[in-house]
């Protein structure tokens, strides 16, 4: 295996493991309440889990922005700036988290106004929400830590954190529910304990692996200062402006992504329970593919930022070429696996013969996802590493517009086929626009 491929896999493989473990937190909670005797428990966890998924998804820029800027500072060997970025990102994440805690009641009321759960589900989901919201400091603090670790070319630590969270969640939730007799509150507390276990694990691993970086900071007159050039303080105006410019673009991009994703579900639901079930099942194929491709995107973030920081254009070009090689290989592999075993996989998820029969009608759309999606995933990672977030926003905006134009234009004729065609065009447009912007992005990065 070539050194560049080995370098990519050292970051991608642990990231893939971390990505796959993420949905386990929600699945464990659902599995536990699913045996408590009432479907309202499942509904409460589903509603509460969805709220937190959206909240944390929106603030995912804390991870992505930190990853790109840290990898560039690492490439420059600017260790004081590396330390500043960590403190800046975690500090802002904690500040956002405390705002969420202060605003928890209006956030919950606004969400329930849009979702309209039953009274029983609303009551249980309210208890779940007001316990789990206290995990926001741990989750958003972890976003900063995770992005920083990836920027430092270390994706193993985020993997260890994810495994720790899942183990803590299983032990705590089962103990609180079955040993202490708690119900939704026990599951919520188990999730909360797991979130802080992951955060504390992240801090402990930072001290163990990067504790020597503490020599770059000092506390004078009760103020934390980072040694380095003048005018480069943690909260210095220019540095904060750049941090928020990068993260503003990622935030707006994420809003576009969330809008398309939620609309896809809503449009399926409007066509009846069978179509909603079919779309949900087929989207699991996309989700599995995205977990793997996100691993390679993380490798793109870390390595492209590193080589841009080091001013090594040749290494960056070689990395991009190898990343796309892995992307093509993954697309071919997933297409073959889905073509040969996709129906069997759907059979594991449901035994409803009508749903499986209708899924066959749309299966070829899901089969095309890997081929049209690889460029979007790979370029996302490279653009984040280059902190070329404006290009990411433009490509996502163009893709979102194409999605809605195609769907509403073709819906009267193609119905649910129009939804899938629009989704594929959305993925393809993201990759196509970023491909068109890539040369300019690289030239700008090496000015």
Write the SSE topology.
Elements lengths: L2 H31 L5 H20 L2 H16 L2 H24 L1 H12 L3 H14 L3 H16 L4 H24 L4 H27 L6 E4 L2 E4 L10 H33 L3 H37 L3 H37 L3 H33 L3 H26 L1 H30 L2
Antiparallel strand pairs: 1-2
Q: The biggest beta sheet, please? A: 2 strands, antiparallel
Proper CATH architecture of the largest domain: Orthogonal Bundle
Report the count of strand segments: 2
The helix-strand sequence is: HHHHHHHHHEEHHHHHH
Q: Name the beta content range.
A: under 5%
Mean pLDDT: 87
Q: Please give the radius of gyration in angstroms.
A: 22 Å
* Shape summary: globular
Total tally of structural domains: 2
Count of discrete alpha- or pi-helical segments spanning 4 or more residues: 15
Which bin fits the share of residues in helices? over 70%
Task: Provide an overview of this structure.
This protein is mostly helical and 447 residues long. It folds into two domains: 1-215, Tetracycline Repressor, domain 2, CATH 1.10.357; 238-446, no CATH class. The protein contains 15 helices and two strands. Strands 1-2 form a two-stranded antiparallel ribbon. Helix 3 packs parallel to helix 11 and helix 7 packs parallel to helix 9.
Task: Supply database-style keywords.
globular, single chain, 447 residues, two-stranded antiparallel sheet, mainly alpha, Tetracycline Repressor, domain 2, 15 helices
